Amino acid sequence: MGNTGSPRVPNKPPPRFSGYHSAPNFEICHVCNRNIERWDNLRQLIFWGFKFCKMHEVDGTPRCSGCYRFQTEGQMEYVNLGDGRKLCLNCYSIAILDPSKCNRLIEKMREFYKELNLEVDKDIPILLVDKDFMDKRQITNWSRNGDNIQVQKAKKTLTKAKVSSILLLFGMPDVIMGAILAHEMMHAWLILKGCKKLDRKVCEGICEVMAHLWLEWFCNEGKNNLDAYATEQAEFTKILKIIHAYKMTTRVDKIYGDGFREAQRAVSTSNLHKTLQHIVRHKTLPPRIHSNSTC
Fold first, then answer.
1. Are residues 77 and 137 in the same domain?
2. In angstroms, rounded to a whole number, what is the distance separating the alpha carbons of residues 7 and 231?
3. Angle of helix 272-282 relative to helix 259-269, nearest 10 degrees?
């Protein structure tokens, strides 16, 4: 990685993360190497220390769909995935691009759920598809905003609910695709437990908790996941994990942001299994416990 694209973790996180940060300092654009003379034309990807002109958001400059950095002058051309998306070489080196890599990720996901003592139906089809297929495919029910992954509506049988399939958009870095798969596997788990009419904020919140737990597990408890990587790949994966986790914890919307924080609070207070048991039985999060303090 070059100096303009190398990951950097600030000593203190910024007050919020919305993808960009405006700063009134005189800077040089890392994309075109020109001076950014007006503060309102400056944009920055905080965790990468990557500064760029606002115009590059709309002028067709190639942008990585994994880490969101722009291609800079003199940098090797980004890899075209053939469906409108591009990947920088860092993201490409750890991306899930074929069924064999996807199968290994699925096995890691089952290992992750098993360590949490959660049983996952092994018969759920998990398919790796391209963006064109994802766009054209009519999905009866989707649970995540964006087009990264979708789950078909559960089919009713005489004995139990059944999840039709999970579709994964190929070409994402493994740590991020894993977080999305962890999220959707919890949707499937809830459906198979009979939670088909769960409040959306409760449902998405606990699924985001699972995604957040995966990020920590993949880079810590699942350390052997990174052992096969070169040092540069391992460090890059860790910074992607930090960025993705920070975006989750600071998200401002009600369903995913507030939902995650409320579910995370419940898990921290009770633990994961008690929280899930309460959701299955009562279709809500456990009541918030207020400490009684006396002066």
1. no
2. 13
3. 120
Residues 105 and 205 in one domain: yes
Q: Which of 196, 225, 257 is nearest to 115 (CA)?
A: 225
Q: Is 6 helix (H, G, I), strand (E, B) or coil?
A: coil
**Do the Cβ atoms of 107 and 86 come closer than 8 Å?**
no
Single pTM value for the model = 0.80
Q: Compute the distance between CA of residue 105 and CA of residue 103 in angstroms, rounded to an integer.
A: 5
* Residue 266 · residue 275 · CB < 8 Å: yes
> pLDDT tens digit string along 114-160?
999 998 877 888 888 888 777 765 443 333 434 444 444 333 333 45
Q: Which residues pair with 80 in a beta bridge?
A: 86
- Return the beta strands (E) in 26-165 as ranges: 27-28, 35-36, 42-45, 50-53, 79-80, 86-87, 126-129, 149-151, 155-156, 161-162
- Coil/strand/helix, residue 253: coil
Any domain includes 9: no
Tell me, yes or no, whether 106 and 242 share the same domain. Answer: yes
Number of CB atoms found within 10 A of residue 34's CB: 10
Q: Are 112 and 83 found together in one domain? A: no
Evaluate whether 241 touches 226 at the Cβ level (below 8 Å): no
Contact indicator for 36, 75 with CB cutoff of 8 Å: no
pLDDT digits (tens, 9 = 90+) for 201-242: 999 999 999 999 999 998 886 556 666 667 888 889 999 999
Rounded CA separation 186/118 (Å): 10
Of 93, 118, 135, which marks where a domain is finished?
A: 93
| Residue 41: domain span | 27-93
What is the identity of the amino acid at 42? L
